[in-house]
Records
---
Amino acid sequence: MSPPAPLIHLRGLHHRVAGRTVLDLPDWRVAAGEHGLLLGPSGSGKTTLLQIIAGLLSPTAGQVMVAGQEMTSLDEGVRDVVRGACIGLVFQQLHLVNALTLADNLRLAQRLADYPPDDGRVAQLLNRIGLGDRAHAYPRQLSQGERQRLAIARAVVNRPALVLADEPTSALDDGNCTRLLDLMLEQAAENDATLLIATHDARLKTRLPARLVLTAPALGAVA
Ligand SMILES: Nc1ncnc2c1ncn2[C@@H]1O[C@H](COP(=O)(O)OP(=O)(O)OP(=O)(O)O)[C@@H](O)[C@H]1O
C-alpha cells in the first residue's frame, strides 16, 4: 500500500521579489498531523513561505499542494473558499475586524468558507478561550492576549486540516505564551490538524520540533 499523500507538498518552489531569490525549496513535505516550527533568521522567507502555502501569494515557480489541492492552479475565488475551509491563519497582524463583535468575527470566518452559520461552534470556542460572556464585545475592548486567543479561535472555527501561524507569541508574556500554545495544540489535536508555526521565539523551541530551517542563501544576490 502506498503511503498517504502529505498534507503539504512543495515541489520546485522558487520565489523572487524585485529580481532577488527569496525562497528556493526543491522538495518539502509535511505529513498530516506533523506539528512543528519553521525557523530561520530575519529575512529568510518564513512569512513568504506561509503566504505561499496559504495561497495568498503565488510563487514565481513550483507546485504547492495542500490537502490534495494544487493551490496555484485554482481560480482566486475557489482558492479563497479552499483556504477558508482547509487552512487556519494566525498572522503577526491579527486582522481582527474591529467593527464586528467577537462572535461576529468567528461567524465571518464561517461565511468566508461558505459554511452555514454554526452558533454552537462559535459559543463553544468563545467559552474555550475564556470569552464566553463577552461574545458581544469588540476586539478593541480586549487585552493583547485575549485578542491573540480570539485570532486562534477564528483560525480553527472551521476545523481546518492545517493551521499556519506567523510569530503568534512574540508579543506575549510567558503565561500567555504557554496558554496560547496549549490552545493551539489542543485545537489541533481535537480537529486532527497540523500546526506549523514560523517563529524566533525560543520558548516554542522547547515544545515543538523544527520542521524546516530556512537560510538566506540569496540575500544580496540580485539577478
Ligand atoms: N513586497 C516585498 N518587496 C520586496 N522585498 C520583499 C517583499 N516581501 C518580502 N520581501 C523580501 O523577501 C525576503 C523574505 O521576507 P520574509 O518577510 O518572508 O522573511 P521572514 O523570514 O519572515 O523575516 P522576519 O523573521 O523578519 O519576519 C526579505 O529579504 C524581504 O525583504
Note: The chain has one domain: 32-56+73-211.
---
Amino acid sequence: MSVPDIEHVEHASPTVGGAGNLRIMREHTEPDLAAAERAVADLLRAFGKDPSAEHLAGTPRRVALSYAEMLRSPEFRLTTFPNDEGYDELVLARGIPVQSLCEHHLLPFSGVAHIGYLPGERILGLSKLARVLELFARDLQVQERLTQQVADWLQHHLRPQGVGVVIEAEHLCMSLRGVRAMGARTVTSALHGSLRRDAGSRQEFFALTGGKI
Ligand SMILES: Nc1nc2c(ncn2[C@@H]2O[C@H](COP(=O)(O)OP(=O)(O)OP(=O)(O)O)[C@@H](O)[C@H]2O)c(=O)[nH]1
Ligand SMILES: [Zn+2]
C-alpha cells in the first residue's frame, strides 16, 4: 500500500472531548503564473489565434489562474472522535461530487465518489471523507490512482477495520474528443481491510454503492 506524499503540518493535541485534530495539506510547488500565462499565449498563437486581440487579451491569465486553482487542494483539519459506542457497521458517504484533471490530456473528468469505512477505535467527521477526496482530486490524475490514494490514505490515518472507495466518472478526453463516447462512465474501486477480505462486508459495500460484487 503506497501512502501518498502529504504533509501533516501539525499534530494538535486531543481536545477535552477527545477529538483528534490534524491539519492536513498537500505540498505544492508555487505555480509560476507568468510562465503559465506566456505558455497559454504561445498555445493560442500555435493555433493561429492572436492573444493580443481585445477579446483574448485576458485569456492567458485566466487559463493560468484556472489551472492553478484546479491543481491546488485546500488544507483542512482531519477531525476524529473516539468511537465510544463501539459502532461497527459501515459508515458510507454516497454520491460525493468529484472533479479532477486527466493527466494525459489536461481535460477534466468528473462524477461521483462513494467512500465508506468500518470504524475501528475512532470515527471521522463526515465532511472529511469529501475533503480527503479533494486533497487528491485537485491534481493531475488517472482515476485508478485517485481511487487508490483516497483508500490508502484513510486506511493509514484512520486505522479503521476497513475502507472502500468507488469512483464513477466521465472523462471529457473520452467524450469531447478522440473516441467521443459521450456519457460513458468509468468505475474504479479500492478496498482495504475487512471490506477487502470479508465477502459479506464487501457485498454489503457494493450493494450500498450500487456497484459490482
Ligand atoms: N487508465 C486510465 N486511462 C485514462 C484515464 N484518463 C484518460 N485515460 C486514457 O489515456 C489514454 C491515453 O492514450 P494515448 O493513445 O496515448 O492518447 P490518445 O491518442 O489521445 O488516445 P485516444 O483517447 O484513444 O484518442 C487514452 O486511452 C485515455 O482514454 C484514466 O483515468 N485512467
Ligand atoms: Zn484524458
Note: The pocket of guanosine-5'-triphosphate (ligand 1) is lined by residues 102, 104, 142-144, 171, 173-174, 178-179 (CB under 6 Å).
